[in-house]
Amino acid sequence: MTSVLKHFLFLITFALVLSTVSSYATSNNAPIHGNPINVSHPSQQVETSYSYYMTHQITMNYTRVSPFDFVFHENKFIEYPHATFPSLLSLNQLLRIDFSKPLSSPLVIGLGVRDTNTVYLWNITALDRSTIDLNVTGIPAGMYDLLLFQEQSGNLTLIDSQAHSVRIYENISKPKFIHVSDTHLPLFTKDKTTLTSVREVFKNISQLNPDFVLITGDFLEGTATYMINETTQQPPLYSFSELVEIGLRFLDEWDFPIIVTAGNHDWMKIYPSRDYSVEEWFKFMYPHPVQHFRFGNMNLIGYSILDEITDNILANLQASVIRDQNITNIFYTHFDFDGKLASNIQVLSGDVVIHGHEHHSGIYYKNGALWVKTHNVFEPQKMSPSTGFRVIQYVNTTHVNIDENIYPYHGSDDSMAATSSSTNDNNGLIETQTAPPNNQSLPALSPNILFIMVSIIMLRKRPRSVSKNNKL
Fold first, then answer.
1. CB contact set of 128 (below 8 Å; sequence gap of 6+)
2. Do 47 and 111 belong together in one domain?
3. Which of 13, 42, 326, 359 has CB atoms 3.0–4.6 Å from 376's, for a disulfide?
4. Residues 167 and 143: beta-carbon distance below 8 Å
5. Which residue, 169, 200, 219, sits at the end of a domain?
């Protein structure tokens, strides 16, 4: 094919894009103006690698979809990014999109800018693919909704979306995130609502401008589906769909990405008469138990609580590990119920483990890794010595900054000399806590008492002796 013919075909393709956008404006009676993109690459599709460049930027009367509009649709397409597991990427990274099934017809993908009327479009022409990559060159940093359109007879119809699911960063130089656990939305018991308390804590979190927030399980309170409704005198107080709606609405309130894993209260297997199952949790939330993403020099690997860590989950965890001295492997989960994470953490080259479940705080060494647990959010009167969240920042390849104190990743299980401090949101006092040895629980510390434990900490990072081919 001559270069002249290739150029001619490209012009025809671009004209069809303009035609599609124009017909969408006509059929919906909405002002949509097509603007040529201004990026370093021409508008094109690189189908050999299934990596796509943006084809057009449009301005439209963009009525933002509800975060749960497509949650309960039977014919869902987008698996990742997800409202509970958003994609975090820098300006020079590709945006990976996973579909629940291979594409059977050409589609149009859009990134909708929150609180504006701007949408960026990509024409997707490859078929029989369940994963594609979008080149986001030229897209400004910010938070986006992922939109999926189907083109029929010149009209664009929205067929799926994931609100609040893509965050593009200007740069990722000093990654900082917040750990939160056990929000138990919207209530922990019938007489103890949580939504207001959790929202107040998240207002404080938003002032810290985190890169993202991790919620390690018990995001929702599954027992609400068995509580007696006072009006009907019958269960449920909330249906599962109502719980999902409450949770997704809450996530959508904030201008930072929030990553959620499931805990034992999210789907409540302990109640055999439950009206929803763990399968339904994965149907409406991120549909896989293992999460994995890279953020700067941090490699974060999470998993949702099931009956136990199965061999398949262990294999997925192992496949997600990056064995590189310059990379920090951080595992996050609700709790290590069966002890398999702890017993395999050295094989997994784990540096840090983050969890919740116990409703109190602690920082300790176990099997050579640093373990961090955070207090539940919704009981501020019981949070001493915790604010209900932790600030965690990557320092370098051997240390992590937790609540303004620096900890080495690896140390002795029977020796802990690291001290963390945090601000009590109720009275502004600085409270200091010291993690005890042997994975003991923290004492309830008064804000006016300082506990200091002095011992030797190994500052040297543990050598990575496990080869990439070792099996669990």
1. 102, 103, 104
2. yes
3. 359
4. yes
5. 169
Q: Which two tokens stand for residue 48?
A: 């050999």
Length of the chain measured in residues: 472
Residue 3: what pLDDT? 54
d(C-alpha 42, C-alpha 205), whole Å: 40
* Residue 144 domain flag: yes
Chain Cα centroid distance, residue 347: 25
Compute how many other C-beta atoms are within 10 angstroms of the C-beta atom of residue 104.
8
CA 417, chain centre distance (Å): 31
> Is 452 a member of any domain?
no
Q: Going from the first residue of the chain to its last (472 residues), give the mean pLDDT of each consecutive group of 10, the final group possibly shorter.
A: 51 42 30 31 37 69 67 85 95 91 85 82 82 89 91 79 94 92 86 84 93 95 74 73 89 95 78 59 87 96 84 94 94 94 96 93 93 83 61 90 86 50 29 34 29 26 36 34
* pLDDT score for 426: 26
CB 334 within 8 A of CB 262: yes
Which DSSP string corresponds to 199-262?
A: HHHHHHHHHT--SEEEEES--B-GGGGTSPBTTTTBS-SS-HHHHHHHHHHHHTTSSS-EEEE-
For Cα atoms 106, 108, 109, give the angle at the middle one, nearest 5 degrees: 130
Q: Are residues 122 and 58 part of one domain? A: yes
> Do 114 and 245 fall into the same domain?
no
Q: At CA 449, angle to CA 446 and CA 450, rounded to 5? A: 125
Domain carrying residue 138 = 10-169
Look up tokens 């949509």; give the residue.
32
Q: Identify whether residues 184 and 149 lie together within a single domain.
A: no
Within a domain: 459: no
Shared domain for 101 and 151, answered yes or no, is yes
pLDDT of residue 393: 93
CB 360 within 8 A of CB 177: no
pLDDT of residue 385: 42
CATH code of residue 368: 3.60.21.10
Q: Nearest to residue 403, comparing CAs of 218, 173, 172, 176?
A: 176
Q: Count up the domains in the chain and report the number.
A: 2
